[in-house]
Amino acid sequence: MNNGNAADRVIQDLRGLALAAAPGTRLPSVRELTARHRASPVTVAEAIRQLAVEGVLEARPGKGTFAAAPAPGERRAPDLSWQTVALGAALPGEQELQALLATPPAGAIALSGGYLDADLQPAAALGAALTRAARQPAAWQRGPVEGRADLRDWFAREAGGGLRADDMVICPGGQAALSTALRALAAPGDTLLVESPTYLGALAAARAAGLRVAPVPADADGVRPDQLAAAFARTGARLFYCQPLYANPHGATLAASRRAEVTDAVRAAGAFLIEDDYARDLTIDGEPPAPLAADDPDGHVVYLRSLTKSTAPGMRVAAIGARGPAGARLRAARLLDDFFVSGPLQQAALEFVTSPAWTRHRRALRTALRDRREALLTALSRHLPDLVPARLPRGGLHLWAPLPDGTDDTALAAAAAANGVVVFPGRPWYAAEPPAPHLRLTYAATPPARIPEAVTRLAQAMKGRAPS
Fold it and tell me: Which 3-state string (H, E, C) describes 12-48?
């Protein structure tokens, strides 16, 4: 999504129109603004919300957006345009991340986002655990900066035995852990290798850290080892970010036949592999392979595991670990960022994952995700059969749906949002030019009963978006 600073463009446009118009004048609709500025409807809605808070315009649900009357005694609207010069260019990826995390408009059906539907979250069990933790005075005291030893031990065991508790550091969510790793293990100007496509948040974090991002082709069996070795040789990179299990967005799991070749390529380059194991608790079919960190005697794998995706957005607890000096750098970087993670939240997380409720939740989640994945596949087969992926992911939250050649995925996503279904285009998930258009369709954020209607709305939007 090449929005540039799309939100600023929409805000400046609407502000000028509202201030020049008489109070009560109808302003352009969301549909008109998305087309005019090539911005997502979520970005436009956020711009309208911001200007409504400032009192520049008035949003009337079901009727539209109108120029607001000036407040009594108001002499002029605030002029914040100077900040554009003072701040300089926005960081790449900010608009896409904001759009990805935005709350869908009222009445829209979400086939986007990266978290579980509220019905799938173990909110009662988490709330009970947090309540018990909050009642213990010791939980509010300062603990070890690297996190509770018992929680770090749990994460280390989950990594397959290749790491110890002393190698781990607790972080406030997977994105914070990833940002820490990129800053601790690389310097501005260094190259980060990534799968292509890859997690949007990783691209944004890398660019914010001043890293050059180089894509490595991936297919249905994960990253291609031959291309990875060639990329190391060509770029001199010493860092590779990878999601070997149910990769976001394309869903591939690194094939057993490729695991040794990938780690051999990393070892031969004298590099680190950041293993983002975000989806270990999101398995649907079969059993997941062990983490790459489980067989890493020489400390090339940096292991990242988060509880957020498999529990609830508010469970901002993750861990990252590495052996040797790399682990020491990670722990030092976390200390500089925020000292330590909330004690009650750590205690609640530990209580939950070591209780029978965790096992029950994972079992129920597997069934629920399978049902929702099947609902989305059935609806696509009926209404949009060309969007059914050639190979289905065995876990995770998303389908990577291929679009007909020549389709503008960004324009399609905007048209879909205008038609009441929120999807996310494939373009932002690539570090370079995308080889083909895709949509990332999330089946975990919407009840199964609403998925057929969402696909029907998407099919209607596609009718007016035939490839040119």
Answer: HHHHHHHHHCCCCCECCCHHHHHHHHCCCHHHHHHHH
Q: What is the pLDDT along the chain (468 residues), one digit of tens a residue?
A: 444 477 888 888 888 888 888 888 889 988 888 888 878 888 888 889 889 888 888 888 878 899 987 666 555 567 777 887 888 777 766 667 676 777 777 788 999 888 999 999 999 999 999 999 888 888 888 888 889 999 999 999 999 988 999 999 999 989 999 999 999 999 999 999 999 999 999 999 999 899 999 999 999 999 999 999 999 999 999 999 999 999 999 999 999 999 999 999 999 999 999 999 999 999 999 999 999 999 998 999 999 999 999 999 999 999 999 999 999 999 888 877 777 788 888 999 999 999 999 999 999 999 999 999 999 999 999 999 999 999 999 999 999 999 999 999 999 999 999 899 999 999 999 999 999 999 999 999 999 999 999 999 999 999 865 544
Q: Which residues of 423-439 are buried (b: 16+ CB within 10 A; e: fewer)?
A: bbbbbbbbbeebeebbb
Contact yes or no for 172/306 (Cβ under 8 A): no
- Exposure on the CB side of residue 336, measured as CA atoms within 13 A: 11
How far does the chain reach from its first CA to its final CA, in angstroms?
18
How many C-beta atoms lie closer than 10 Å to residue 382's C-beta? 12
DSSP characters over 245-299: SS-TTT-----HHHHHHHHHHHHHTT-EEEEE-TTTT-B-SS-PPPPGGGG-TTS
CA distances from 162 to 150, 295, 328 (A): 17, 6, 16
Cα distance between residue 337 and residue 93, in whole Å: 21
Q: What angle do CA 322, 328, 333 make, to 5 degrees?
A: 100
Q: CA-CA distances (angstroms) from residue 117 to 132, 210, 309?
A: 25, 34, 11
Token pair belonging to 267: 């070892």
Q: In whole angstroms, what is the distance from residue 248 CA to residue 225 CA?
A: 19
* Beta carbons of 215 and 196 less than 8 angstroms apart: yes
Of 178, 162, 330, 157, whose CA–CA distance to 243 is shortest? 178
Residue 372 and residue 444 in contact, taking contact as beta carbons nearer than 8 Å: yes
Residue 126 CA to residue 49 CA, distance in Å, equals 32
d(CA 326, CA 166): 12
